[in-house]
Design goal:
single chain, globular
Length: 976
């Protein structure tokens, strides 16, 4: 047994040493050793101080109580029973005097280490320059100082309680403490317990006093922060309770001279009664009898404080409100078409839908993978800035056949992905696929390093590098004319940790429980290990004080593929600001299903996009750039970790051109704007104008995701790359009316100037629709699914509702793409691409077969956006719809349409009318059946006329019993 215990201890020690050593090497490899040392030192210091104080206090109580035990214990029945316990304890007493304090000290030290961030913020924090309206204290006191004081008071209270219990137990067992009526307690017991009890009472007094300030961040049913009842009832009672606790401390000290526990017991009882009556009952009476009947007027001042604090803490005070103005006269259709065409680059490629398309078209092999959610960025192609859907092609070990899965392949051969891929956001091929301008042999962005060693889907670790002259081992990409020849590569980058020495291999063998670090010839003197490889994990390790955006995205910057990660400084201690649950605010239909977009957790009431971070995809280097340099929390952390955050001036122009507004930040802001778009306390209280984020029509239980698009709001001369979200009225039921109440567009274009973001970046523009009631996303989806409008492609025989139905079953799957919203002449112009794919089969992937456009209550659609715009506003002068953004041309609806195409359309109308009649008969709706027969007769007459013009004998085509006899969706799309 001793041998096993020693071996187990050595194994634990070896694991700790290996973990510590590999962490030090890793931080050295990225140049952030100072962060690791500061964090470790702070944790160790807190652990040591907390552990020693706890162990010392408990140990001292045990020793003092034992040494001051009475020499002669009165002979009573109770003491005779205790004598048996004393005899049983005596053999273990010396061990217990050491073990109990040590165990409690270790537990207290371990539990206290989590306060290292609180300590560093207190030690390095400063002022915010804003004062709390209730106490007149700077916000910095609440954010930096108050949390640390709360921790100190709580910790000291726990230590004193443990010491008191240890003393009371020892005095009682050894006869120094007698229960009432069973004899006198010793003076030593009175002194010992009286002093400890007084100290506990004083810590309670300090806690009551600090609770006054903590009311500023208390979450209530109406608001977060101080309310009328808090200010006029709770604050005074907290002060009274603090005084009562001080008096209770005096009672404990008085017991030393009175030689009776009557005063302390009375004091504790009175304190409890006071806490209940004064601390709970009195505020409840004030709330119900005074505040309740006049709550709207009495709470107005405090609601106003909450609105002001929340707006400042979340950046809502920067919202520019724009009122939607409906023109007195409806604009001419030519003007509307011109306005629609002026929208630059309407993005019909949905990054949340086309990941399988990227995988099927550009994956090449199963061991390559794209994330299930792609990203939107902007690139200059042919001297024009275009929105693009981008992704990197990463390695996917799960795609390897099972017989090829082994340590050598998993960790030394298939080590990295290859290639950056970008497709135009507003273009599609005739088959509905994205039009790529980068990746897969295309080179529009110039030369850059294409290897992806650090990515969102990277393996846990890889061993790379080889001796000079050794044959390359790592798979790079398929080569040869047929792609069957593997091109090999040897990593030459500076990323990762060198494991050429024997001791380092031993450390990593222990860390990863893998003997191949010592046995395999793939590990050599030049080997390096790449681990902790996802961009977010790397940034979290070098900046553990940051809250990261849930979505990192890649960009080609200065010849390198860089992952860009947004970092936030947050707090839950900003006075009077609304507490927000991040898990609820950042969740939407994309985040819930994605394997790369993460949902944040925790509660906050302050947030700043303080840092922009980059991670190099080839060497893994991490850089942190200060972004919101005025943020006091960023200043505190920069002081705590000097040199870890680079100045804003270090951001190159190339990197600046790819910086976006963070998705999670706008999600939090839109969650708050549901209520805080209202600035009048009375209206806020009544809740008569609450909004909500629309549900995603495709996933009814989740919010609609935010969207990147180029958009211009009324009064703006040019469209800007923005991130947008819409709002509809809040409703108590799912059947509530869904009209559009607001459209938030945040400028997401940081410009191209090195070290200086564009002045308009981050501007929040809120378009409020007021009396206008344009349809919201739910109504738009309903209009689309029930529309009987015909396609602008004359070869398409079905109306829109039939097209959707026909492609939603029978081996097909139809997917609605992102619903883009644009203001146009006082109304809303919606664009939604629709994708179709085979519902089963390993080669299935979505293709953008049609695009639907809506304006007001009018719906139009076609193979392309140009056709949809034509259906809404008539034929234009040409040039790609949507701001001249080119799309692959299809046959437009013009007077020169061939007779053959017109006949095809007429036959489609015959089939549609016949099907409608059959459905009406099935339902017993004879009125609808009569209308269908009239439509059928008109369609037959039309077909006869066209057939006669073609020189064919007039004959009535026999309609099919079902619409399935019509040309298939794929055939008609191809004809376009």
């Amino acid at each position: 047994m001793p041998t096993l215990v020693v071996l187990a201890g050595l194994a634990v020690l070896a694991g700790l040493v290996a973990d510590l050593s590999t962490d030090v090497w890793w931080y050295d490899s990225v140049g952030f050793r100072g962060v690791f040392v500061t964090e470790l030192t702070t944790k160790t210091l807190i652990f040591a101080v907390a552990g020693l104080l706890t162990a010392g206090a408990v140990g001292a109580s045990l020793v003092v109580a034992y040494r001051t035990r009475p020499i002669y214990v009165p002979v009573t029945p109770a003491q005779q029973v205790l004598e048996q316990y004393r005899q049983a304890i005596e053999p273990l007493r010396r061990i217990a005097l050491v073990v109990i304090p040590v165990v409690l000290g270790l537990l207290a030290g371990s539990g206290s280490m989590g306060a290292w961030r609180t300590y560093l913020l207190w030690a390095n924090g400063g002022d915010f320059g804003t004062k709390d309206p209730q106490f007149g204290l700077d916000v910095g006191f609440f954010v930096f100082t108050l949390p640390w004081l709360d921790f100190i008071v709580s910790f000291v209270t726990v230590v004193l309680v443990l010491a008191f219990l240890a003393a009371a137990f020892t005095h009682y067992v050894y006869g120094g403490l007698q229960l009432p009526g069973r004899g006198p307690s010793t003076r030593a017991a009175y002194v010992h317990l009286g002093v400890l009890g007084a100290l506990i009472a004083l810590t309670r007094a300090a806690s009551y006093w600090l609770d006054r300030y903590s009311l500023s961040t208390q979450k209530g049913s109406l608001i977060t922060g101080i309310t009328y009842t808090d200010a006029n009832a709770v604050l005074p009672t907290k002060a009274i309770l603090a005084v009562a606790a001080v008096m209770c401390a005096g009672f404990f000290l008085a017991a030393i001279w009175s030689r009776s526990w009557r005063l302390p017991i009375t004091g504790v009882a009175l304190l409890v009664v006071t806490a209940v009556v004064v601390g709970a009952v009195y505020p409840a009476l004030i709330q119900s009898l005074k505040v309740g009947p006049s709550e709207k007027s009495l709470e107005a001042k405090y609601i106003g404080r909450n609105i002001a604090a929340t707006s400042a803490a979340f950046g809502l005070d920067r919202v520019e409100r724009i009122q939607n103005v409906v023109p007195a006269q409806a604009p001419a259709t030519a003007a509307l078409r011109a306005g629609a065409e002026d929208i630059p680059g309407v993005r019909i490629i949905d990054p949340n839908v086309v990941a399988p398309t990227f995988r099927q078209l550009e994956g090449q092999r199963d061991y390559y993978a794209f994330p299930d959610t792609l990203d939107v960025d902007r690139y200059t192609v042919d001297q024009r800035v275009d929105d693009a859907v981008v992704a990197v092609r990463e390695i996917n070990l799960d795609g390897l056949p099972d017989n090829q899965r082994n340590w050598i392949n998993d960790h030394t051969v298939f080590t990295h992905g290859y290639g950056f891929y970008a497709a135009y956001g507003n273009q599609r091929t005739t088959e509905g696929d994205p039009v790529f301008f980068e990746g897969g042999g295309r080179s529009t962005l110039g030369p850059y390093e294409p290897r992806i060693y650090f990515g969102e889907l990277s393996p846990e670790y890889s061993v790379v590098g080889a001796e000079r002259g050794a044959s390359p081992r790592e798979f790079d990409y398929p080569g040869g004319s047929d792609g069957d020849v593997a091109v090999q590569n040897t990593y030459t980058g500076g990323g990762g940790v060198s494991i050429g020495s024997f001791m380092r291999r031993v450390a990593y063998a222990i860390k990863y429980r893998e003997a191949n670090f010592l046995l395999s010839d793939a590990v050599n003197g030049q080997s390096r290990i790449l681990d902790h490889r996802t961009p977010k994990e790397r940034v979290e390790r070098v900046a553990p004080w940051l809250q990261l955006d849930g979505n990192a995205y890649p960009a080609v910057v200065d010849g390198r593929v860089q992952w860009i990660v947004d970092g936030f400084t947050t707090s839950a201690s900003y006075p009077n600001s609304r507490l927000v649950d991040l898990a609820e605010a950042t969740s939407d239909s994309v985040a819930r299903r994605s394997n790369v977009v993460q949902v944040r957790t925790g509660e906050i009431n302050y947030i700043r996009n303080a840092v922009k971070a980059t991670v190099d995809a080839e060497d893994g280097s991490v850089r942190l750039y200060g972004w919101d340099v005025s943020d006091p929390i960023l200043k505190a952390w920069s002081k705590a970790f000097p040199g870890s955050v680079r100045p804003l001036s270090d951001i190159s122009g190339s990197l600046m051109s790819h910086i976006r507004y963070p998705q999670d930040l706008i999600k939090v802001q839109r969650d708050l704007l549901n209520e805080y778009h209202v600035t009048d306390p009375g209206t806020f209280y009544s809740g008569s104008d609450k909004w909500r984020v629309p549900r995603d029509p495709s996933v009814a239980s989740q919010d609609q995701p935010v969207l990147f698009q180029s958009i211009a709001l009324p009064g703006e001369k040019a469209a800007t790359f923005s991130i947008t979200t819409s709002f509809v009225p809040a409703s108590n039921n799912e059947a509530g009316r869904e009209i559009l109440r607001g459209l938030l567009a945040v400028n997401a274009d940081a410009g191209t100037q090195a070290g200086k973001p564009a002045a308009s970046f981050g501007a929040l523009r809120l378009l409020e629709f007021g009396a206008a009631q344009p349809p919201g996303p739910g109504q738009v989806r309903n209009q689309i699914q029930n529309s009987t409008s015909r396609s602008q492609n004359p070869a398409e025989p079905l109306n829109l509702a039939q097209y959707i139905t026909n492609n939603s079953g029978s081996g097909k799957q139809l997917t609605f793409g992102n619903l883009l919203t644009f203001p146009l002449a006082g109304r809303t112009f919606y664009v939604q691409p629709i994708y179709v794919q085979a519902s089963s089969g390993s080669g299935s992937f979505p293709q953008n077969k049609i695009t639907v456009a809506l304006y007001g209550t009018n719906v139009a659609w076609g193979d392309t956006l140009e056709q949809a715009i034509t259906g809404l506003f008539g034929q234009g002068s040409g040039g790609g719809g949507g701001g001249g953004s080119p799309t692959t041309p299809t046959t437009p609806s013009t007077p020169s349409t061939s007779l053959e195409q017109q006949l095809t359309v007429a036959i489609g109308e015959i089939q549609a009318a016949y099907s409608a009649g059959q459905q009406a008969l099935t339902k017993g709706d004879f009125a609808a059946y009569g209308d269908a027969q009239k439509a059928l007769a008109e369609a037959i007459t039309k077909a006869d006329s066209i057939a006669a013009q073609l020189g064919a004998p007039a004959a009535t085509p026999a309609p099919s019993a079902t619409p399935s006899a019509a040309p298939s969706a794929s055939t008609t799309a191809s004809a376009g």
